Fold this protein.
Amino acid sequence: MRKRAAAFAALASLSVLAAGWEMGVQAGVLNPSTASATAATPSAPSAGPSAAATQPTASAAPSAAAAPAAGTFTGAVVQTQFGDVQVAVTIAGGKIADVAPLLLTDRDGKSVNISNRAAPILRDEVLSAQSANVQNVGGATYTSSGYVQSLQSALDAAGF
Amino acid sequence: MPPGSKPFSDPGSAGGPAITFESMGTVVSLRMGDGDAHDGTGTRELRRMAGAAAEAAFRRWDERFSLYRRDSELSRVARGDIRLTEASATLRDCYMLALGWRDRTDGVFTPHRADGVVDLSGVVKGLAIAETGEILAGLGLAGWSINAGGDILVDGRPAPEVDWVVGIVDPMDRGEVLAGVPLAGPLRAVATSGSAERGEHIWTPAPGAASPYLQVSVFAADIVTADVLATAIVAGGEKTLNDSTGRWPIEVLAVLRDGELLATPGLRRPAS
């Protein structure tokens, strides 16, 4: 519970951080990360296999140098009385569209990556590439005899 | 051909069927995409060599660590024929690695069976997959995938502009796929644990308590981390799930007993 309390306390300070972020832009603190369709692009060590990695949106294209910055920006790690905090800010149309916390550190010094929390999701909300492109099937281990009936054996026989 | 090992298919022509062989009670599928090499026969020979080397690597790990083989080194340790301190450096290193994961998962992942026997099956398959990856890279191959019983490690791309995509099977209908996830970023490995096909083989910390999860898939940068954390999350439930997503750069897709899904943000379909 202490961890949760620390997380909420740190969240409460986000408005301050967001203001700090605006100054941070001028100070060059922010490192633009690749534009992403999701609001909370994880910071480098926690970047996930999201489709965004392979399908960068055009919103942060280098050619748009004259246009206002758009995309998701990862802020520097800021030390607060509640622990280390890092946020990602999504800019769209010159406005802050979303602020997502990436990193919180509780008083025990243990980092709490709350942006990566697994949350309930509907089946049609899950990342789902075209099934025709699937080369491998992951699933709880099949036995040698179970392999024959598995999707994997069909894929293996078909090649790709 | 070693005993207990039979090919399901031959290494075909370039871009043809996967190379498959039996090991560790399951089937290993190797795919080698176009990679850098396109020259017909030389590539075919290289693929054949890679398949043989991969099969030999899996056999080495299985012969040393299988508790189903009476003559394996680990079986001899289990019977007390040899002490752990007298065991090979490979076995002791593997045990230390598993103990490290026990500590990092607060004891949820453990290399000790309930009866006290040292069981390293939680890390051995991952280590065999990882070593196979090193062997393929050492042969100069790029753009491959290794799938051992549903645990997958990939390198590069299967073809230019094409991602390796893994379909995660639906534990409630194993002919269906829940998600199609490109292994294109830094997370090149995925492992899945569950109770769907091999029964309740994962020990839960509370005796008799069933896992809240039918199936847990973990995407990580390396296959051992993916495999260990998938096992730990099934065993440790929600607390281990939240601890793990907070502590490691991973993505997780979990299927609850009623079929509902939990997913980390990276597995969410981008809003269109």
